[in-house]
From TrEMBL:
HAMAP family reported in the protein's UniProt record: eIF_6 (MF_00032)
Upper classification of the organism: Archaea, Methanobacteriati, Methanobacteriota, Stenosarchaea group, Methanomicrobia
Keyword Protein biosynthesis: yes
GO biological process: cytosolic ribosome assembly
Function in brief: Binds to the 50S ribosomal subunit and prevents its association with the 30S ribosomal subunit to form the 70S initiation complex.
Protein name: Translation initiation factor 6
InterPro entries with a match to the protein in the record: eIF6
Source species of the chain: Methanoculleus formosensis
Entry's family note: Belongs to the eIF-6 family.
Pfam family, one: eIF-6
A Gene Ontology molecular function term of the record: ribosome binding
Amino acid sequence: MTGTIDLTGDPNIGVYARVFEDIAIVYPGAPEGFTATLAQELDIEIVSTFIQGSSIIGSLVAGNSRGLVVSGLATDAELSVLSEYRDIFLLEGAMNAAGNVILANDYVAAVHPEMEFDVAEEIGSFLGVPVVRLTLGGIKTVGMAGFATNKGILVHPRANDTEIANLERVVDLPIGLGSVNMGGGLVGTGLLANSKGYVAGSATTGFELGRIEEVFGFLE
């Protein structure tokens, strides 16, 4: 089953959690109804921790089945929790909001176009995937302007042919334009998904849900 949900009235659910194939990282104290829905709809285990003392997990963590890229400002206690599930790469420096600047799945990592070349290559090596530096819809924070699962990639509705072609050169997955929460182009802020299911922000329309289901292969 799939559908829509909010987090204490906020439809921007992708800001506060990060979902993978087997786990979802959610801040401590998140409503039980929210975490229970993620566990059931996406068939994952809930991992409860803050990142750098903050609840905006989706903005501060990226990665795939091989590892997690985490803000370099995360505390030792937070990293201890995460290291039980994945190897960890700390993203240091000014561009440390990993979830904002990295869009990743098990096949590709798209990164902020101004990320240092060496850092981008290290991330690709760590995650075991090719790396491409690009924008989506002209937006440099590709982790918020797109959402990737192992079955497809949903991108900002204003992403152009060149941007999509840059992705298509390195990954063989469906790539489609879409939005969330009544026209929001930052699809990463309003969506949580893996290959088993998805939940979208509560303001997401039926048409938008249809696009999500099409791109991620949930249409029957």
